Amino acid sequence: MLEVDIGLIGLAVMGQNLALNMNDHGFTVAVFNRSVTRVDEFLAGSAKDTQIIGAHSIESLVSGLRLPRRVMMMVKAGDAVDSLIGQLLPHLSPGDIVIDGGNELFTNTSRRMAELASQGILYVGTGISGGEEGARQGPSIMPGGNPDAWPQVQEIFQAIAARVDDQPCCDWIGAGGSGRYVKMVHNGIEYGDMQLIGEAYDFMRRGMGLSQGQMAAVFGRWNTGVLDSYLIEITAKILDFVDDEGPTLERILDRAGQKGTGKWAGINALELGIPLTLIGESVFARCLSAMKAERLKAAAFLPGPNGVLIGQAEEFTAYLHDALYAAKIMSYAQGFMLMREAAKAYGWQLNYGSISLLWRGGCIIRSAFLGDIKQAFDNNPALENLLLDEFFRDAINQAQSGWRKVVGKAAELGIPTPGFSAALAYYDGYRSASLPANLLQAQRDYFGAHTYERIDRPRGQMFHTDWAGNRNPKLDDQP
Ligand code: NBP
């Protein structure tokens, strides 16, 4: 009888394609699905003529696995995963490995890792990006969890992952929920990239009156330079796509969906106190788009410019390119800043250069630009913010004039650019030696006696002023 390398539970889109991918790389995979008819359909369908083995119960799935047993779950995140772990445990022994490849909240992964470690089971929560095609052809894989599991899963994961420059887009991220966390930030950055591309499209469409064909050509051109990326490439193809009734994009309802990973990133950034404004604005922009009925009423009720640029198409196409590039740099700078803070808060050792390499292939945000991020962290592994790297400083400096023109002109024409604008506000805020937070602190002290520090006294020394009584500042005697 064949010794089975790995058991896989969950035969929806991702599970099926990962099983086929593992089979292609010479691993023997046994598969199980809660609705067992799916197992038979898979074996009779796309898994026909493969080495994949079907199981009709968890017990039979686990019984054929080589030791230590490796079981991977590709099911809906949340309760389904806890329920499956409960069903698996009676069939596992210490040293066995349980892997969750779903889009799970990182805190659930940390919790499960600790719970299973107490029973000697090694738990891995891994990010897997790239959707159906990635799962089949080679995804980007971001595993984290119990470090003792890595030597047991490394070979399979690195074999099935995407490769760039002959390097697998898979490496160990770190302990606890760190793999899931990095995938969450990846998804948030994906939201940001998509929002920025959408704003460039909207500006060209509404502000410049370009046709879909013209915009497809612009995105196609951009894809050969610093913006070279999967999302720019597919945007050009979408704009070029025509069906029997005409350009398909024009008939798609402008209400965005979301599955929650961008929201998780935003919530965690608020908890950690990191200005993740690009991702936040991108999530809110999706929320605003979803209010279609209200927007239709408001469109007929609220006045404002609906202007169109006359005769500046060439200049503004170049400015838009620069706005997109600069804003994208801000978004990644914020994403890496969040990961740095999370590593501190949760006690993880994250390798930021390596993370950027994992995203170069197999995932939705893959782009040439990630090589520059890797370079920045190679130059200085302790880099606090990408904006403090010379390459990115110079890139922003070259792009900022066009970026500012786009934000200014969009405001004038009445075209919303929350991503471009938030990115610029972040940049100007970050490079400001002085911000109006002194006034804010004074207000807080005025109405709530919250105290303040002074620029001419040691940090940590707190002062309070009796503002209404107009008395001089007093050293605060509160602890
Ligand atoms: P889905 O997220 O649509 O989940 C469907 C699978 O979950 C089916 O196998 C279903 O079994 C199983 N399942 C459910 Br629902 N409840 C269960 C339970 N209580 N116990 C056992 N199994 C249960 O599948 P997917 O789109 O392939 O995604 C799998 C995971 O990968 C998800 O966490 C997803 O977020 C993540 N992911 C998806 C993508 C993507 O592009 N789709 C990309 C990256 C990551 P059934 O057949 O019996 O209903």
From TrEMBL:
Record: active site: K183 (proton acceptor), E190 (proton donor)
InterPro entries according to UniProt: 6-PGluconate_DH-like_C_sf, 6PGD_dom2, 6PGDH_C, 6PGDH_Gnd/GntZ, 6PGDH_NADP-bd, 6PGdom_BS, NAD(P)-bd_dom_sf, Pgluconate_DH
Any GO BP annotation: pentose-phosphate shunt
Reactions catalysed according to its record: 6-phospho-D-gluconate + NADP(+) = D-ribulose 5-phosphate + CO2 + NADPH
Ranges of residues in domain 6-phosphogluconate dehydrogenase C-terminal: 179-468
Recorded metabolic or biological pathway in which this protein acts: Carbohydrate degradation; pentose phosphate pathway; D-ribulose 5-phosphate from D-glucose 6-phosphate (oxidative stage): step 3/3
Keywords assigned by UniProt, alphabetized: Gluconate utilization, NADP, Oxidoreductase, Pentose shunt
Keyword Heme: no
GO terms of molecular function: NADP binding; phosphogluconate dehydrogenase (decarboxylating) activity
Residues that, per the record, bind NADP(+): G10, L11, A12, V13, M14, G15, N33, R34, S35, V75, K76, A77, N103
EC number: 1.1.1.44
Top-level taxon: Bacteria
A Pfam family that the UniProt record links to this protein: 6PGD
Root EC class: oxidoreductase
Residues given in the record as substrate binding sites: N103, S129, G130, G131, H186, N187, Y191, K259, R286, R444, H450
Keyword Glycoprotein: no
UniProt similarity note: Belongs to the 6-phosphogluconate dehydrogenase family.
Quaternary structure note: Homodimer.
Function: Catalyzes the oxidative decarboxylation of 6-phosphogluconate to ribulose 5-phosphate and CO(2), with concomitant reduction of NADP to NADPH.
Protein name as it appears in the record: 6-phosphogluconate dehydrogenase, decarboxylating
Record gene name: gnd
